Each structure stands twice: as structure tokens, then as C-alpha cells.
From TrEMBL, chains A, B, C, D:
Residue ranges the record marks as coiled coil: none
Cofactor(s) essential for the protein: FMN
Native source organism of the sequence: Oxalicibacterium flavum
Domain (FMN hydroxy acid dehydrogenase) ranges: 7-370
Catalytic residue list: 266 (proton acceptor)
A Pfam family assignment: FMN_dh
InterPro entries named among the record's database cross-references: Aldolase_TIM, Alpha-hydoxy_acid_DH_FMN, FMN-dep_DH, FMN_HAD
Protein name: Alpha-hydroxy-acid oxidizing enzyme
Length: 370, 370, 370, 370
């Protein structure tokens, strides 16, 4: 299986154009699944708006020649701070699915986080991109609410396939109230499935009267901090947790020796009415105090957003929906284009802000309107 | 008379869907009556927006298994903190009227507050639901501005029929400026009436020139705190007051030994331009200091709203319009569906916020954006 | 000349309805003239929005029986605190013009301020309403940028005709940038004129190159504080100034012994981008410290707005556009209806706020959201 | 070559009307080029909104007769504080291009800043307007990122042609992300070019793998403060820098002995998400402390905006798009009309605010809503 090269349709000037065009290419169910959020989608919108509300106060006439967007993460140098977030079932967006996304990431030097719910096998992906000279890191994402034996097996597979870190999503012990998705009558199309999760669908318990299908059944498998500690002890890979929104939880993670934090509200897909990630990021950065890498996702659509995230204390950012839009629009070529657009915009934002490297960026760059 | 079981129409994913669909089922007058507010409906909108503006800052990896939504109120354990607020003339929304609503409440373990202006007799309702095993408490709502003899008789009827508390609405010594209702040319349809208020319509006084029909006639019957004290002395039931928006009034109520407070602006139907109930709730909670149960209504449409209300200090919440929409859409089945949706959303919101019980919820759960 | 009684068209529930309907009755020029503001009409909208943003925090179970809306002003008792502001050329809105407005004001106990640019003679109006038993005060408005001889003659006419106070408009040494009016191609219709200003149109001076038609010609006639002192010395009537927006100017007025202040930005018709009158009112109230009556206009459309104005320190309010709408809709009957609606809403707002008289109203009634 | 006099089309009441009408006269590419901004055009809108949000708190009854709008700048007296900002390729908007704009500026006493990317030769323009009796100053704008020899030659030409100051644009070491312009498929029409920049298009460097076309090629020519110092040392003209948004950079400029600062974000055309110029102006004014003239552009559309800019500490303002709209609408006549409208509005705003001269204007005139 190889990602098909596909030519880029015209009219794609920025990530918003990719979204607009992707809506015309996906069927209604796929669009609802990928673009929808929880509840009234307040957090989904606020994620975006929170970046927009922040303002950059640029400096002039500073030395920017020979600047670059490089960052260092877990001992590797990355060409730029944009990673692709884990997104399930990408073959719903395009036949090549996660393979195309990973391939584009590799070509563009972007880190790639493969979802446990991938619709293409992790080994297939790893082999296909292994040889790309400029490729960024490949990480594997997982949920803890599965049996430990199954999880360990998955972790071993990831280690052997060459994935370089584990990302544990901790903000979804249950699904959010995804009304748009439910209204669409969501079901996986024929031929698309979570290839590593076959037979993993758990049997519902028999409930007594007055018991809750959530609290008294599903959540019996909800993970705790000890599960994270267990995982950390059973893998040689760095372990990041994704879904942190509270500074106290960041402190706990640091105390447990975890290796990284991804500030995220799951793209507004779990609990509607959380703060935007841009709103909690500075508090978490302060709590972590540089003890481990800090990443953020949610609503990043412009190079200026990336720069703002760095200014608020992030080491790198992840994008989700935008690259799925690129995928729907033109397969690997579309994903590569989305990454390239964002990176080019970041370079321009840096040059126009008077910073040559991301190390020079701090909260000083943000305008305090008071 | 028995509430008809009716099947649920498709497309009802959340309470907003119920509202949208109900508008197509009610005639214009009924819609204007139930959905309209006072004046420019600023308070009506602000009630809703104030919950939306509040943000939850969730915790992760906390023990939530075997959690529950139960609360304790006046010595009873309720399955969840959602009650049905008193709403008049429910037979305008559906032929089964209050009977269907009470039946659905009983089936879903929700408390039910019957309006003094019920269009089905309180005894009929009490008998119909008495035997429901999981039913929540039945309370009776009344206005004080009628003759004491008549009131006492009504109170006795409620006591004998098994109602467990009295709710006195104190925020409407006169009706609000309900322009939408007036524009619709409101009148009760044939066959719908306030069955306990026959012959209770008071005669207007003859006014002298320069006198006000409001101040010099209608308001002569407006109740005071002493009327509340009198009522408290003449019933064995707990007495709650509904319509408190000021912390000082909450202190007075506590000082008088009243049994509970419902923070309410009458769903935006009386004085337009009051604060949203979410805005005054924390002050009133502080004033009450746990001396008596505190409930709140107005704009609650999501499980996250319920959770926010608890976080601001409420013991429970009431919904009004949403269950009338359910009633219009599918009778008792529709009301039950509305309660169920809200309770399910509350469970999910709790799980995703990292709280297992409502007792664990405090203002700490709310994000302070400062 | 007598104001024709005219029946009220249906569908007029509130002042906004009057506006909507009036637009269909006036020709485009009249509508642009009466409803337009200066510049981008920011102040026009903000006047309205500023009242809306204020919130009332009502008290419950207070004694409101036998309450009333009466106020005391310059030694007279007024039935309620609503006056009609000076508006020019009212015969553009309805053939009866100012006569109808004055007649309606008298019938409804409202104070009436006749514009110097009235299209009906002040004597005609005074005689027509003199005998109305419940009539409120009649005041006469004037601009100072006319010759003193002419002004004195006008003042004497007003004194003799029975006008009880002089209102000097001080915020318009020149007209505002009234773009909507200019776009409409404004001109007075045949038969409508400022009946007291015949032959008062001043001749333009011959300007030298580089001189400004405004600064070097028109503004040579702009009045100063000394002109106000002169007027005060030459009339036995109380003198109010209208158009105060700065607390310092209020202090100066009080120091000069003027008799009253009207906080106004000319209904947003002069300088666009002034603060809303509701925003400056409390500062001016504090500066005046009760030394003289304080009135306010601009954006008052609801009884709750009147109550808020009193709470911010005003003794009374004026309305402008709303009564012109009533005038266009049904002559004197329409104006009376507008006043009545506002007064009824005020009574209801008082009753629902728990206040029996306007003397009980203070800033305590306003909710401070902090 | 002479600017054609052209009659003014009807319906142009203010600068917004000019914009609306200009859109119908320009082709799509020209409209996108002149009216578009960078990115999501947030800064473009915010520039405008920031002036609107500021409120003037006018004083009354002050002496305004014989007032004027004159200011003093670099030893010259200007009739008013409105200058025309440098705008490239004006022959795209109208055949007469920069010649018409300069001619209109001269006729209206407005300062004119000619863009280095002018489509009409600077000498042609200088000769055409030299004789206008009331003309304001002519300045020449340039970018530093070209060879010094070429720049010196250009500076000498400007000096000889009679330009009175140099304006160095420092906020665009690279172009912004001008999506609207890119979407339009921008290209210069036949016959329009930057007449002083022929053969100045630099050759791209050959990049190594992993190098950035921006950081490793284009920005090698990006100027620094030393380049400004060099320029200052090589011309007898005052040197202003345009594009300052940070108070620290203003301090550096003052320390280097530069002659003036233009607070600007390039009309929202470079870095989207900078603060509005009105937001940074007061800080820069404080940093500069009167040591040199301070000008501002971005979003000025009303005389009240000009007055607000002066109140925040600017000595003068520049307009860009509005005069290009006038140019498109009626050539020199249209530009003159735009300047006249703004000046007339400024006079009216001053008179209605109670100020006779701009020297009397300070931050006191602004309402602080706190």
C-alpha cells in the first residue's frame, strides 16, 4: 500500500480554504465526525477565538537573517514546531488514510502522532516513511481503558515498529456529547475500521435497577494516575499525557516523572465549556516550569497562532482537523500543503515580529492591553 | 384520566432540538405564552448566556467509577438534581398537561413542582403517580396574593394529596410586561383553565382620578414577609420561596426559618433586565451559608449547566420551558426524554470533569479567567 | 387650530412598535431627519445599549401598595418623571405637530419642552393646553447663538405665554455630521417652518483665503458661560442647560446658580462618539450633589430605563424620538399612548423591584457585576 | 502629464461612501490589492474599531471662535494634521495615479508621502505641485532593503526634486500573508510599474536543502538600526521611521537621533494580529515624551478619529485607503474631496468638543469608562 500522489486543487491559500473545500469533498457523516465538537461547540469555537484575541507586539529592525523555525524535542532536532495530532479513522477522509498523513508529515519534517484507532496498521506506516531523510518523529497515541495485556502488546508493537514516544490521551474516560455526530447517524463505512482494536469491544455489564451505564459499567475501566505510572514503568519510550487543562494535574504529571504534557481539550470534542487551550496554557507552563516539554493543540490555524503558543510557553503545537481537510482535498499532497502553509506563515510571522529563532520568543512578544 | 404513552419523534438529540421541534407543534399563542419573556427578553437570553459564559476546568485521571448523581433534599435521596419547575396551563401544550409531566418526572426520579395554576387537579396527579417506585418529591407551588381562607384550603388539599413541600412564588406581585404574549392575543383555549382557581378572579376596585390600577388596586393584595411567616405557621410542610435575586432577601428568609430558596427571575418573564440567575447565585449561596437548601432555575439547557449550578452553590436545579417542549413533542414520553437527556449529559460532564459525586463539586471546578 | 383625535392603530405594544410603524408612515426625508444621528450613529446606538447593559437587582416582599410614580420638580408635583424633549419641526411628522404633542403631554401629566424651532406658535400651544387639569409643566427651549435682542423678545413671549422654565441647549454650537439626513436630501416641506425664527437666518461673512467657514464665521456667535449668566439675570424663569456630558461643566453650572441640568448628547445627533448619557450620569450626579434637579435623555425606551436613570441619580427623564413616532402614528393619541406605555412600564418595574416610590430608588437597586 | 479635473459623482457624504463607490469602479485585482489586509484581516478591522471604541467627553460653552486646525511640523505650519500615506502603484486605481493624489494634497494643504513604489516619477510630481500656494510638505518613502548605492541615488533624486523628509518603512522586511490579494491572482496591469525600481528585482539565491527562502535568502537584506543610522548620516533631510508598534523601539529611535516616528501596522497588511495603532499610540507617545514628532495611521475614517489620535499624543495622522478610494472615484477631485471631508469633520468635532486648537487637545478629552 502506497500513498498516491495527487495534484493540489486550486484556490487553497490558507487552512481555512482547506476546510471550506474539504466540506465539499467529504460525505455528511465524515464531515460531522471530523469537524463536529461536543455540545453546543462553544469550546470548539473558543479554542479558535482565544488565539485570535491574543495580539503580537512586534519589534523592528532586529537581526533576523539566517533565522530558523527549528526546535529540539526529546533529543531530536525538528525543522519546525508543528506536529500532526492523533486522529482516528482517517480512511474516512481519504482512501490512503493515515498512511498519506504520515507520509506528508515525513516529507515536511513534521512530527506525526498515530492514533490507536488508526485505520491503517502502524507497521505499514512506519515502514513506508522510515526512509524519508527529513522526517520528524513518529509517536503512538493510546487510551488506557483497555486490558493491560492488550495495551502492553500494543506498546511492544509500537516500540518495535520504531515509534519514538507514547501519547496517552487522558481527557476522555467517556465520549463527549457529540450531538452533530449523533445527528448525522454516524457509522463507519464498509472497509474502514480501527485495525489494532479488532475484538476489543467490551461487553456491557448487566446493570441493576438504579445503576448507571456510565458510572457503574463503562467507567469501571477509567484509568488513574497509577495506570500512567505502570505504563511508564513498562516501556522504554517517553510517555506524554494529552488532555491536561489544569495546572495541578501538570504538577502531578511532573512529579510522576512523565515525559511531556499536551495541553488539549480534545479539540472541543469531549467536555463542552472547558476553557480554550490558549487560556490555560500559560498557567500550565508556569506550573511545569520547564521540567518537561509542553505541547498544545486546539484551534491553531495560522502561523501567528503557532508563534503565540510558543510565546505562552509551548515547545510545539499539534494540528488535527486542518490536516484531515488537506487529506480529504488531495491525500498526502494536501496534508503536505497544509503543513507547508503553516510553516511558511510561521516564518513570516517570526520575521515580521523581529525574532530569528523560537528560543527568542517569550511572553514579552504578546501585547498586554491594560 | 391517564397519560397516553406516545412514541418519541426522531431528531431529538438535545434540549435545543426539543425546543425547535416544539415550536412546530404548538399553535402561535401557546408558543408565545410558554417561550416568551418580559420586555425585550434580555433577561431571558442572559439567563442562558450566563451559564454558557462559565467555564469548567476539568481534572483528569481521578477515580470516577461507581460515581452517581444523587443528592439529598429535605430528608429524601433524589436520583439526580433536576426538578420540574411550576408551569401553568400545561394542557395548552399537550392534552395530558400536568399529568403527563408529573408522570414522566416520577418515572425519571425527578422532583415535580405543580403550579397553583395547574390545568389538571392536584389530586388526580398525586393519585396517578403515587405508586411509581422511583419517583421524586412532589411539591405544590402557590402565590400569596389571595384570601387567606382560600389559601389555607388549598394548602390543606395539597397536604392531604401528599405534596411534600410548598413553593411560594414571590417575584410576581404583578405580571411582567410580556409583549410577545400580548402581541399573540393570548387567551386560554376552550377547556383549559386553572382548575383550582375557579371563581377566584378578584373584582377591580373603583379608582379615583389620579389613582393607579396597579398601586392602588392590584398591589393592595401584594404579600409581605409576614404573610410568609403566617403560611409557615399554618402548615406542616417545608416552605420554599421562589424568586430570590438578592443576597439580603436570602438572609431575611433564613432568619425567618423558611426551609429553602429558589433563585429565580421567573424565567425572564417578570422584570426584564434583572441579572441572570447564574450571576446572583454565588452571592446568595454565600449569604445562606448552607443553612438551607438552595435551588436555581433559568436557562439550564445542558448537563454542564447543571454541574455549573452545583459548583456555584446550588443543591439542585429546576427546568421549565424544556420540559414543556418535551410535553408538546411527545407527552409524558417527551418530558421523560428531556429529563433523561439532561441527566445523561450531567453524568458525562461529571465523568469528564473528574468528579464522581456532586458533593465533590465546588467553585474550584470553575475556571477563573483573570 | 386644534389637535385632531385620531384612533390608535393596532399592534402597538411598546415604544419599539411605535418606531417600526412610524417608519412606514413618514416619508424618507422626515424619517431620516427624526431618526438619524451624527456620523456612524455609534452614540445613537450606545445611548440605547447603555441602559440595556445596566441590570436591576430587585427586592421581594416589600410594601408596594399605594405606591406612586410622583416626583417634585421646581415646586410642582408631577405625576411621573417622563417629559417630552424639545424636537424641531414636528409638523413634518404629523399635521398637528407640536400642538398634538403638547396636548398629549398635558392629558398624560407629562412635562413638555417646546423647541425654539417649533412649527406651531408657542402661544397657540399654551392656550390650547392651559385648561387641562392634570397637565405637567411647559418649558421653552432655546439656543443662545442668536442676537440678544431677539432672544430677549422670545423669552418675554415665553414668559407671557405661561412657559415655566427655559431650557438652553448648549451642545450644538454647530450641527453634527448628520450623514443620514444629508443623504436623504433634507429640506423642509412646504408649509412647515420654524415659526418663531422667520428672518433670523444670518448672513454669511465674507471669508479671507485660509479662513474657516466654521471657526471664522459661524462660531463667532457661539455662546459662552457669560451668556448663560446674562440670560439667568434677564428672566424670572428657572434656567436649565441641556447637553452636559462632563462633571466639570456640571460644577460650573451649579456655581453659576443655574437651576437645572439635562444630561444629554442631543440624542446622538451632534458629536458622534460621546459616551452614552447613562455612562456619564452618575458622575454628574455626584458632581451636582443634589444642588439642583438633574434630568437625562437619550435612548430611554422602557420603564426599566426610567427606573435605572433614577437609580443613577436623575430626577426625571426626557424622551424624544419615541413620542415623534407616536405623533406620526396617531397624532395626539399616539403621543399619549407612548407616554402611557412608558408610565405603565415604570409602575410595573417599580412593583417588581420592590420600590413604592421613586424616592426609595438609589444606586443600590443596580446590580454590580464584579 | 497633468492630472485631469474630473467632476465628483453624487452620493459621497463621507469616507465610507467613497469606499463603497470605489469598489464598483476598480477591477477585482485592484480592489483586492488596495483594500485587502494580511491573514484574516483582524488587524485591519481592529484598527478601525479601536478608534470607534474611544469616546470623546466634550466640554461646553468654551471659546471656540477663531479656532483652527493648524499644526507645526519640522518647522512648517500645516493647515491641518492630515497627510496622505505612501501607497504603491496608484495608477492601478486611476490613470493619473500619484500625480492626482499629490495635486489634490497640494490643493488641500495636506502633506503627501510619495511611495518608493510610485507609478509616476517623483520629479514629474514635484514639478507639477511645486507652485501650489497652499501646498503641504512632500516627503519620500523608502524601504532599506536594497543596495546602498541605489538607495543613495534615490535619496539624492528626492533631495533634488524638493522632497522635504524621508520616511523609512521598517515593518515589512518581507510581505505579509496577503491572502485576499493572492486569491485575486494579483499582477500589475500593463503600463503600470514602480518607475524608480526598474531592474532592481533581486535574483534569488540558490538554497541548500533545509534552507529557508525567507531566512536564508530574502532576509539577508533585511535592514537594522545601523542602516537607519547610516541613512541619517547620508542625507540632509529629516528621517522618520514608519511601522513602530513598540515603545522600546520608539526609545531606540529617539536615542539614535531620528527625526520622527509613524506609528503604523502598515494598514493591517503585514503582520495580522498586531494591536491596533490606537492601542499602542499612547505608550509610544509616553516613551517619546515629545522629543520628536509622532504620527499615526491605520483606520482613520472620521474627523473624530483624527481628534482622538491627537488626544492620544499624535502630532498628525496619515490616511491611505480612503484617498485611493477618492482617486478611483474622481481622480484628483476625489482625493481632494476626501481630504476636505475629513478636515471639515475635524473642525466640527473640535467645535462640538469645545476645543479651538489642537494644542488644547490632550488625553483629558477622552472618556475613561472605569
Amino acid at each position: 500500500m502506497t500513498a498516491q500522489l495527487q495534484s493540489l486543487p486550486p484556490g487553497l491559500t490558507n487552512l481555512e480554504d482547506h476546510a471550506t473545500q474539504a466540506q465539499t469533498r467529504m460525505d455528511e457523516i465524515a464531515w460531522a465526525y471530523f469537524s463536529g465538537g461536543a455540545g453546543d461547540e462553544y469550546t470548539l469555537r473558543d479554542n479558535r477565538d482565544a488565539w485570535t484575541r491574543l495580539q503580537l507586539q512586534p519589534r523592528i529592525l532586529r537581526p533576523v537573517a539566517r533565522g530558523h523555525t527549528r526546535i529540539s524535542l526529546f533529543g531530536r532536532t525538528l525543522e519546525h514546531p508543528v506536529l500532526l495530532a492523533p486522529v482516528a479513522y482517517q480512511r474516512m477522509a481519504h482512501g490512503d488514510g493515515e498512511l498519506a498523513s504520515a507520509y506528508a508529515a515525513a516529507a515536511q519534517g513534521a512530527g506525526f502522532v498515530l492514533s490507536m484507532q488508526t485505520s491503517v496498521a502502524m507497521q505499514t506506516i512506519a515502514q513506508a516513511v522510515q526512509a524519508e531523510p527529513a522526517r520528524g518523529p513518529m509517536w503512538f497515541q493510546l487510551y488506557m481503558h483497555y486490558e493491560r495485556g492488550f495495551l502492553l502488546d500494543l506498546v511492544r508493537q509500537a516500540e518495535e515498529a520504531g515509534y519514538e514516544a507514547l501519547v496517552v490521551t487522558v481527557d476522555a474516560p467517556t465520549s463527549g456529547v457529540r450531538d452533530r455526530e449523533r445527528r448525522s447517524g454516524f457509522r463507519l463505512p464498509d472497509g474502514v475500521s480501527a485495525v489494532h482494536l479488532a475484538q476489543q469491544y467490551r461487553q456491557s455489564r448487566q446493570l441493576e435497577p438504579g445503576q448507571s451505564a456510565l458510572f457503574d459499567d463503562l467507567l469501571l475501566a477509567a484509568p488513574g494516575w497509577d495506570d500512567l505510572a505502570w505504563l511508564k514503568a513498562h516501556t522504554r519510550l517517553p510517555v506524554l499525557i494529552k488532555g491536561v487543562l489544569h495546572e495541578e494535574d501538570a504538577r502531578i504529571a511532573a512529579g510522576l516523572g512523565l515525559d511531556g504534557i499536551i495541553v488539549s481539550n480534545h479539540g472541543g470534542r469531549t467536555l463542552d465549556s472547558t476553557p480554550a487551550t490558549a487560556a490555560v496554557l500559560p498557567r500550565i507552563a508556569q506550573a511545569v516550569g520547564g521540567r518537561m516539554p509542553l505541547l498544545v493543540d486546539g484551534g491553531i490555524r495560522r502561523g501567528t497562532d503557532v508563534l503565540k503558543a510558543i510565546a505562552l510557553g509551548a515547545n510545539a503545537v499539534l494540528i488535527g482537523r486542518p490536516y484531515v481537510h488537506g487529506l480529504a482535498n488531495a491525500g498526502a499532497m494536501g496534508v503536505a500543503h497544509v503543513i507547508r502553509l503553516l510553516r511558511d506563515e510561521l516564518e513570516i510571522a517570526m520575521a515580521l515580529s523581529g525574532v530569528a529563532t523560537l528560543e527568542q520568543v517569550s511572553a514579552e512578544l504578546l501585547f498586554r492591553n491594560s
